[in-house]
Amino acid sequence: MFLEQFPEEGKSHGWLEVVCGSMFSGKTEELIRRLRRAEFANQSFLLFKPKLDNRYSDDQIISHAGDQFDAINIENPAQILTYWTEQKVVAIDEVQFFDTTILGVVSELASKGVRVICAGLDMDYKGKPFGPVPYLMAAAEYITKVHAICVSCGNLAQFSHRTVKEDSQVLLGAVEKYKPLCRNCFNKIEH
Question: Is the pTM of this model over 0.90?
Answer without folding.
Answer: no
